[in-house]
Amino acid sequence: MSNPYTVAKNCKLSKGFLPSFTPEIYSVSKHTSAAGAYSVVFIVGKNFLPNGTTYVNFGSYTNIPVSYYGSNNISFVVPGNAIMGLYDVVVVNNYTSNFGSHINNFYNSNLNYSNSVSYNLT
After folding, report:
1. Angle, alpha carbons 107-90-47 (nearest 5°)
2. Other Cβ atoms closer than 10 A to 119
3. N or C: which end of the chain has fewer CB within 10 A?
4. What pTM value is reported for the model?
5. Which domain holds residue 31?
6. Which tens digit of pLDDT belongs to each residue from 32-66?
7. CATH number of the domain to which 42 belongs
């Protein structure tokens, strides 16, 4: 009986490149809000991933969940306990080469960071 999991040694590899998994921020819906006030920020950019593999860092507040609308649009809620000050907003993709979030628990991940955008809490 042959092994169904044997890999053929004469497979042709496709030459090309992988798409970028590094997120980019083009714009945010607002750059300032009042500290302690509920505020949703919409981010337009590229290379955002679904299923919990993309999140936002807001200064020292990390792993903030996002609402995913598509690979170019996400949003997050500014942490309600953040004090007044200037914060860097960074989008992070937790890429494991697997697209199912349930699989991400089993593989080492590669964190890909976007450019940062300043946000001011007054």
Report:
1. 60
2. 21
3. N
4. 0.77
5. 24-121
6. 999 999 999 999 999 999 988 899 999 999 999 99
7. 2.60.40.10
